[in-house]
Design brief:
The complex is a heterodimer of chains A (115) and B (113).
Chain A lengths: L4 E3 L2 E4 L5 E6 L6 E7 L6 E7 L2 E5 L7 E4 L6 E5 L8 E8 L9 E2 L3 E5 L1
Parallel strand pairs in A: 2-11
Antiparallel strand pairs in A: 1-3, 3-8, 4-5, 4-9, 5-6, 7-8, 9-10, 9-11
Chain B lengths: L2 E5 L2 E5 L4 E8 L3 E9 L6 E6 L5 E4 L2 E5 L3 E6 L8 E9 L8 E3 L3 E6 L1
Parallel strand pairs in B: 2-11
Antiparallel strand pairs in B: 1-3, 3-8, 4-5, 4-9, 6-7, 7-8, 9-10, 9-11
The chains are: A mainly beta (115), B mainly beta (113).
């Protein structure tokens, strides 16, 4: 499968613990996005990387959230001191470089449940 | 701020009963309007991109159309396997880093046999 890969697919954690999600984009896609989706809602933009540079962050991304893409390939999203309100599906997406690549492709998501 | 509103929130159809989903939007310089399908517990699956008013695209029983203010997703003679949530999203072309997508809340479609 050469699509966007996300791990783990499901994570249950206790409130106050830290969690980290990993995203492997489609090969050669230099643009990478993180979104959050709660039940019954559409995905909400969190942050965007072009290569290794984080170019935009939503105000939804509080200081407990940090995302990295150290070598411009895979990305990680870490949530520190999790709260119950962080329970959601975290979606990663990627897009190819250049003007020809307009479509954004999503992974299967990582479900987070904070208890 | 870019806004996308989808209606209805939910739609129950009998197999073979055609219908349309609406996506109304406001955006600063539309670069593209996207339709995705999302099955429960899965990520959104790309369906179509529309770029300019008057454009239409088709895929099997689905047809998407675009005007300057809204888009429609027509489902013709749906089958139970068309049951899913359909998401509409806009991509702004002006000063939008990475041309991120802004999504509506989705329309949950249930097709009964």
């Amino acid at each position: 499968d050469t699509g966007v890969s996300q791990n783990p697919r499901h994570k249950i954690t206790k409130r106050g613990q830290n969690v980290t999600f990993r995203c492997d984009p489609i090969s050669e896609h230099n643009r990478l996005y993180w979104y959050r989706q709660t039940l019954g809602q559409g995905p909400e933009f969190l942050t965007y990387f072009q290569n290794e540079a984080q170019l935009e962050k939503s105000r939804l991304l509080s200081d407990r959230f940090s995302a990295e893409r150290p070598k411009g390939s895979f990305s990680t999203l870490e949530i520190q001191r999790t709260e119950q309100g962080d329970s959601a599906m975290y979606l990663c997406a990627s897009r190819p470089p250049g003007l020809s690549g307009n479509t954004i492709y999503f992974g299967e998501g990582s479900w987070l449940t904070v208890v | 701020e870019d806004q996308v509103t989808q209606s209805p929130e939910a739609l129950r159809l009998q197999e073979g009963e055609s219908s349309s989903l609406n996506c109304s939007y406001t955006v600063s310089g539309l670069r593209g309007l996207f339709w995705y399908r999302q099955d429960p517990g899965k990520g959104p699956e790309f369906l179509f991109t529309l770029y300019s008013a008057g454009e239409e695209k088709e895929k099997e029983r689905l047809k998407a159309t675009l005007t300057k203010k809204e888009s429609f997703l027509h489902i013709t003679a749906p089958k139970p396997e068309d049951s899913a949530t359909y998401l509409c999203a806009v991509q702004a072309g002006l000063k939008a880093a990475g041309n991120k997508l802004t999504f509506g809340g989705g329309t949950r479609v249930l097709v009964k046999p």
